[in-house]
Amino acid sequence: NAGVTQTPKFRVLKTGQSMTLLCAQDMNHEYMYWYRQDPGMGLRLIHYSVGEGTTAKGEVPDGYNVSRLKKQNFLLGLESAAPSQTSVYFCASSYVDSYEQYFGPGTRLTVT
Amino acid sequence: AQRVTQPEKLLSVFKGAPVELKCNYSYSGSPELFWYVQYSRQRLQLLLRHISRESIKGFTADLNKGETSFHLKKPFAQEEDSAMYYCALLNTGFQKLVFGTGTRLLVSP
Lengths: 112, 109
Known about the structure:
The complex is a heterodimer of chains A (about 110) and B (about 110). Chain A is mainly β and about 110 residues long. Chain A has strands spanning about 5, 10-15, 20-25, 30-40, 40-50, 55, 65, 75-80, 85-95, 100-105, 105-110. Chain B has about 110 residues and is mainly β. Chain B is about 0% helix and about 45% strand. Chain B has no helices and 11 strands. The radius of gyration of chain B is 13 Å and the shape is globular. The termini of chain B are far apart.
């Protein structure tokens, strides 16, 4: 099992460009999450999904959109990137009613 | 509102010294608390949860509801314990984790 994978690992964008981060999990988890990690801020939840076709906003959803068309994939989109979105992005997944989340390796995004 | 506070950004100790990473929380219900760890160039992973009352890699954490704390302790730190540690609170209603800002533990030889 690959667990949770994220694509790409690194990316540099210019302000105003768009991109999509892909998260994939092969553990048949129902729940999936997108976090951003910033120095001094810890991990903050951007969006999450409790099942295929459903998404919900987390703590810091502005400037991001998500889609969960397939159970194993959770996409995070930036329509018009801003320097404030420079961060490390982590995807995670978990079983229903499980306390343990499994994390991906992260995507380091820089917006110039 | 749920909140997790980790007051120390960096904790630096010598090998063999005791370690205590502080975590305080605010939650109106019955809390479920966890410690996650991120070693250098590795993924964030679960270290332990308060319900299990287990010791993982020599670390323990006791939930103190009176003080709303869940401090992580180890009697004798090892160099391989150097990592970023996050305390997290589970919002059971929405199955979401609320993370603290993290404490970087640096264990020097």
